[in-house]
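Handout, page 2. Input:
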Amino acid sequence: MKILTILLLLVTTGIFAQKENYNLNKGYVAEGYDVVAYFSNKAIEGNKKHTAEFDGVKFKFSSEENLETFKKNPKKYAPAYGGYCAYAIGAKAKKVAINPKTFEIRDGKLYLFYNSWGTNTLDMWQKEGAAALKEKADKNWLNIINK
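Output:
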């Protein structure tokens, strides 16, 4: 019985730890926008009829086709840094909300950005050097998720 309790604790702790590493504003990754559609350079809100779970979190898709595409390779489509603002992770090592319509596909990966109140961090990301910020963000993200 003790072993079962310990295993249950480890599994549930792992699941909750994963959820903390995702931006789940509105209950879904990318605020419910279709992460597969971004790879066609489109920001499209998903539909509750087409949902999937990966890594303990929910994703919505605009079509059954995109849902099936995601299921074949979810790691490819899951956004970098759990869907938090890539610029903020790189520049400040902070988890910041995003505007799901502000994104970039770089080296086959989806990056999302904050864009509100006159601040577009995608523009800042590009002006300040996306490659260097991405490198910093990769390191910062490892520190954030390993806390």
